[in-house]
């Protein structure tokens, strides 16, 4: 093989990889950019590029009480779900992390299973369960259902943070006379806090965005934002939804930036 | 002293019991009830049997829905892998600032509301969408193409929507590979393509399988994207379950479809887990 052939070969490999990667990155980013641009249209359709630009649909959003009502509901449910998930999930993670016992392994698989099972099937089964025990659909049933499908994120991130904990720090603390509780409060908790934060954040987003469980466990009084948006989109292509999407996208970017700073979000996801 | 036998570095498994109890009551019990309900022969529950399952498995339409759902997952997963692998490859080789930009572009779709992500595709693929506008401006077509409500549309939209689930495990796997191995391979005379095929690809196999599993499971259960981009023309399992349960109030049949779908997904997950274990043995020695 002469030198020119080698260079061509290296070039062709890099060219293909970089070209496909850049194309994919454009494909990944394009939908977000397109929605942001369309949300500033001054027209009545989702034409791209828009005929002109204005804030009219954001003003319209101010008056869309149904969407606001659903948004408040979704935020409340996501908050309670996250609170419940962090309390139950962090305790569970402490119990199963660093353990070789079979019970711990079985429980770990159990806690992770909602991530791969079709959530819609669980949503249906939860509705059957609640109607059987006579618990009417309410924010409570939504929070219980959401916790099942969102708590795995808390458990997984906390277990990962615990696994990275240096055991000699804990041993040092114990040999200096600290009790288990003091060691937990002063050493373990501060070190795993970023993991808990990241898990809680993803748990919150998962609950806020949940459709398959809410679909069955909600009624008119507990309308949830993603379901409201979905039903609005099925009926007509409303530009107000574009403005709402714009708000959600900006809020999400801001939250990702904050979580990246306080919890090193991207390191925890890879 | 009982306490001295406990290591300071691990906690008691008892701490996991509250969540375990929560899962038994609010996760396992509902699934058992779902199964029991699927054995009812009619919505009133006058008699029991496997009638609902016989009805599903004997019905070409139902089997077609199951088949097209599982096949949809394969297409989405392959597309996401082909497009996502180079992104992970580029991320691992990029300088710090570019890593951050790539990560933000990958993470954003993961954390944005799925309705927003799907809505974006409606805007892109619609009659007045960006693709049709561009093709008309270029003079390639006269009338807008029908892109929305087609299976290709669903596959492309789902591949984008679920791409982060593919790229993140790939980044993990690729960043663990010792860069010296690729150098050694090229030193020994292998070209870049050959090194990719013989070194990079096999060593990143655990990441590929993890990404494929997550993407596949997410793609076949993606109710919102399937129903909004696919429209009423195409029926996939999640919509089928929802339609039977909500519109037709046929709970026993909806329960039976759910169980069949659960079993199908579990089977796929098990296959991937076995392959994953084999590949880890392959990649690490």
Judged by helices, strands and strand pairing, the structural class of chain A is mainly alpha
Largest sheet of chain A: none
Tell me the helix content of chain A.
over 70%
Give the N-to-C terminal Cα separation of chain B: 43 Å
CATH topology of chain A: MetI-like fold
Strand residue content of chain A: under 5%
Task: State the CATH topology of chain B.
Answer: MetI-like fold
The percent of residues in helical segments of chain B reads: over 70%
**Superfamily (CATH H level) name of chain B:** MetI-like
Radius of gyration of chain A, Cα only, in angstroms?
A: 24 Å
Uncertain runs of chain B are: 1-5
Give, in order, the helices and strands of chain A: HHHHHHHHHHHH
* pLDDT averaged over residues of chain A: 89
Unreliable spans of chain A are: none
Report the total helices of chain A: 12
Q: How many beta strands in the DSSP annotation of chain A?
A: 0
Rg of chain B is 24 Å
β-strand number of chain B: 0
**What's the main sheet of chain B like?**
none
Describe the structure in your own words:
The complex is a heterodimer of chains A (270) and B (285). In chain A, 77% of the residues lie in helices and 0% in strands. Chain A is mainly alpha-helical and 270 residues long. In chain A, helix 1 (3-38) packs across helix 11, helix 2 packs across helix 11 and helix 6 (139-163) crosses helix 8 (180-208). The model of chain A has no long low-confidence stretch (mean pLDDT 89). By secondary structure, chain B is an all-alpha fold. Chain B has one domain (49-284): MetI-like fold, CATH 1.10.3720. Helices cover 76% and strands 0% of the residues of chain B. Chain B contains 14 helices and no strands. Chain B has helices at 2-5, 17-38, 51-57, 60-93, 96-111, 114-125, 130-137, 151-175, 179-187, 192-203, 205-220, 223-230, 237-247, 251-284. In chain B, helix 5 crosses helix 8 and helix 8 (151-175) runs antiparallel to helix 12 (223-230).
Features of the shown structure:
heterodimer, A: 270 residues, mainly alpha, MetI-like fold, 77% helix, globular, B: 285 residues, 14 helices, 76% helix, disordered N terminus, MetI-like_sf (chain A)
């Amino acid at each position: 093989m002469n030198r020119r052939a080698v260079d061509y070969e290296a070039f062709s490999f890099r060219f293909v990889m970089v070209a496909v990667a850049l194309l994919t990155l454009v494909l990944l980013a394009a939908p977000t950019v397109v929605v942001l641009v369309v949300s500033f249209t001054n027209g009545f359709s989702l034409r791209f590029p828009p005929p002109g630009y204005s804030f009219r649909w954001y003003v319209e959003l101010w008056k869309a009480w149904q969407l606001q009502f659903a948004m408040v509901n979704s935020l409340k449910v996501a908050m309670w779900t996250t609170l419940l998930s962090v309390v139950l999930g962090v305790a569970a993670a402490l119990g199963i992390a660093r353990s070789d016992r079979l019970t711990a392994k079985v429980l770990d698989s159990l806690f992770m299973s909602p991530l791969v099972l079709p959530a819609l099937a669980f949503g249906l089964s939860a509705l059957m369960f609640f109607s059987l025990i006579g618990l009417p659909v309410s924010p409570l049933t939504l929070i219980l259902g959401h916790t099942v499908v969102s708590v795995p994120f808390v458990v997984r991130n906390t277990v990962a943070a615990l696994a990275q904990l240096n055991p000699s720090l804990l041993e040092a603390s114990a040999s200096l006379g600290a009790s288990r509780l003091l060691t937990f409060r002063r050493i373990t908790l501060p070190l795993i806090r970023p993991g808990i934060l990241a898990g809680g954040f993803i748990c919150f987003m998962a609950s806020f965005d949940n459709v398959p469980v809410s679909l069955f466990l909600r009624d008119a009084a507990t309308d949830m934002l993603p379901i409201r948006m979905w039903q609005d989109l099925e009926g007509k292509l409303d530009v107000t939804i574009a403005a709402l999407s714009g708000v959600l996208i900006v809020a999400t970017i801001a939250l990702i930036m904050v979580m990246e700073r306080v919890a090193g979000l991207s390191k925890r996801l890879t | 002293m009982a306490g001295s036998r406990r290591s300071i570095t691990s906690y008691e498994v008892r701490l996991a019991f509250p969540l375990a109890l929560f899962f038994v009551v609010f996760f396992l019990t509902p699934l058992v009830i779902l199964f029991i309900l699927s054995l009812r022969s009619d919505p009133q529950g006058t008699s029991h049997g496997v009638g609902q399952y016989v009805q599903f498995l004997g019905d070409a339409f139902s089997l077609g829905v199951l088949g097209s759902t599982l096949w949809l997952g394969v297409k989405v997963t392959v597309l996401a892998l082909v497009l996502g692998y180079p992104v992970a490859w580029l991320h691992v080789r990029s300088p710090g600032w570019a890593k951050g930009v790539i990560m933000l572009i990958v993470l954003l779709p993961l954390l944005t509301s799925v309705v927003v992500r799907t809505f974006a595709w409606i805007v892109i693929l619609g009659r007045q969408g960006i693709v049709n506008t561009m093709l008309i401006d270029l003079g390639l077509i006269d009338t807008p193409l029908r892109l929305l409500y087609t299976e290709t549309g669903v596959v492309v939209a789902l591949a984008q929507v679920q791409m982060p689930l593919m790229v993140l495990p790939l980044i993990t796997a690729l960043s663990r590979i010792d860069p010296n191995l690729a150098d050694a391979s090229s030193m020994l005379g292998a070209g870049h393509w050959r090194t990719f095929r013989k070194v990079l690809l096999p060593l990143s196999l655990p990441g590929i399988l993890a990404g494929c599993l997550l993407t596949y499971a997410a793609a076949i259960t993606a109710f919102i994207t399937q129903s909004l981009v696919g429209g009423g023309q195409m029926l996939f399992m999640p919509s089928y379950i929802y339609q039977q349960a909500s519109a037709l109030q046929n709970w026993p049949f909806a329960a039976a479809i759910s169980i069949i779908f659960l079993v199908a997904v579990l089977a796929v997950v098990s296959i991937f887990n076995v392959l994953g274990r084999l590949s880890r043995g392959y990649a690490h020695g």
